[in-house]
């Protein structure tokens, strides 16, 4: 089956067979020092992360809250870039050939590189998919085709405001998994409504068999456990970016994100 | 791209997906799509609705004070030594700039939407003031995002917004100017999308904003067209307007786009000079990219990061431009030129002294180019320069440059 050539598909197939939920973790490439990013990625995996979303820093991250926005600013001060992300990914791959990695960012750096060059570079670096926050279904066609042609996955966001007709359209384009944004707001917002998450996951489930992961507003093991009860996994970002931002150095950042991820892993597996 | 051989139906743009050629579109996070769909649906329904248009026309006449005059600037013309320079006096509108045309229109949409809160982003503060004004009039809550840098350099407008009851939120991220204010307004909208109407101030942003802001500002060009025929018996030979996001320019240009004899010039902020890199002239020195919900010309670095802009005019200090302008540039319908800070400042002083009109620094860019252009044309030719706003807000900036304590 060709789809299992992709690490994301393999990962979810394995998790499903084990009856476990996915823990998807997000950090910003270059945040906390370019030299520490790969170490932090390995730490995420060692502490129990199943998939990594590597944030591609952008000068104008419109959909991010203040915590991740600051992470992007710190990373840009370190001269992080989309090209740099590809290098870091390659370096990560030299020691880990199993953990799926998704590049998550905004359309403009991809536009600048060129969609085809981006897809080629992502494949070559050992990436498994992309999530482009400001590339909704209407505009995603060309990039989607380029990614699919390379057996790379394109992760789309669905939100509480997405209509049924759009869910049908987006899930038709989507691959890998679907990222359900649990609330109206930016990353790091704190007003999680579990009833709404449950209802919307059920609504999405009628349209697709793709794994459904829930992100935004997940702070700890309890919230990770709660949102993934009706889905296939939880995505956590702001608390990790906050921890990296507050850490005195690379070693401290590793410790802190390791602790957070391990706590979430334990809650999800309990 | 070369000029197309068959005439373009400019009224047919944007297309159903909000595209002007390869520009425009909707590049936002999924949360906002339903709000944009709702806005588009409402606007499509209302734009040809007689009652809605009547309400808009009534407000423009009785609240804004339209039509604004088309004024022959005789002493300015004389000093330029060439074509006649006519000023379209958007500075005489209520609140002092063209921005109010659009906010009156969007306020009517907000009223129809039933939402109780409006938000806006602003650079020089003119759009913020116009939004705070219509919000006060309709009894809506209002929050205005403004770059912290612009809060400093445009203090008169900050105070006006506060007087009008708006909350002014200084934005400390990024370059602390208009683009960062727009990011922050988008974040607010994503979070409060159920009860908040976002009044975008320029012809940028995701579809349908570039279209509806253009349509509301096209009153400028429709009037200028009629006034030209009445006052000098023919269409103008050239139109000149400044371009930051480009709302006053598109408002003037759009009703003339099909008139091939009318040349058009959009004037970008050349800052220290386009060649120095310190400017805000993406159509002169930018590349196509995606920012703030649309594909357009942008100022960015080799990694696709948006770079800091520079202009003496806070209202033009924006690294992007409306997508329709990007398209008009590429099809060759409008020429986009740049005027540097010092040229704009000279025009500011010149118009003030020759005509007794203190122009906004934004508009001063258009005046500067209008004067240059007039000198290359004949006395029986006519140029319409859009005087997009008045310069009261800028006197502190100019005084500081001149070393005068106000």
Characterization of this structure:
The complex is a heterodimer of chains A (270) and B (406). Chain A is an alpha/beta fold and 270 residues long. Chain A is 50% helix and 14% strand. Chain A contains twelve helices and nine strands. Chain A has a nine-stranded parallel sheet. Chain A is globular. The two termini of chain A are 32 Å apart. The mean pLDDT of chain A is 95. Chain B is 43% helix and 18% strand. Chain B contains 16 helices and 14 strands. Chain B has helices at residues 33-47, 50-64, 74-80, 99-113, 126-138, 148-153, 155-163, 178-191, 209-217, 219-232, 247-253, 282-285, 323-330, 341-355, 361-375, 395-401; strands at residues 19-20, 23-27, 70-72, 84-89, 117-122, 141-147, 167-171, 196-198, 238-242, 263-271, 287-291, 293-298, 335-340, 382-387. In chain B, the strands form three sheets. Chain B has a six-stranded mixed sheet, with helices on both faces. In chain B, strands 1-2-12-11 form a four-stranded antiparallel sheet. In chain B, strands 7-6-5-8 form a four-stranded parallel sheet, with helices on both faces. The longest helix of chain B is centred in the first third of the chain and has 15 residues, at 33-47. The model of chain B has no long low-confidence stretch (mean pLDDT 96).
Multimerization state: heterodimer
Shape of chain A: globular
Strand order of the largest sheet of chain B: 3-4-14-9-10-13
What is the percent of helical residues of chain B? 40-55%
Reading the helices and strands of chain B in chain order gives EEHHEHEHEHEHHEHEHHEHEHEEHEHHEH
Q: How many angstroms does the end-to-end distance of chain A come to?
A: 32 Å
Question: What is the tally of helical segments of chain A?
Answer: 12
Radius of gyration of chain B, whole Å? 19 Å
> Could you give the count of β-strands of chain B?
14
Number of helices of chain B: 16
Structural class of chain B: alpha/beta
Order of helices and strands of chain A: HEHEHHEHHEHEEHEHEHEHH
Distance between the termini of chain B: 49 Å
Share of β-strand residues of chain B = 15-25%
Mean pLDDT figure of chain B: 96
| Spatial strand order of the main sheet of chain A | 5-4-3-2-1-9-8-7-6
Q: How much of the sequence of chain A is in beta strands?
A: 5-15%
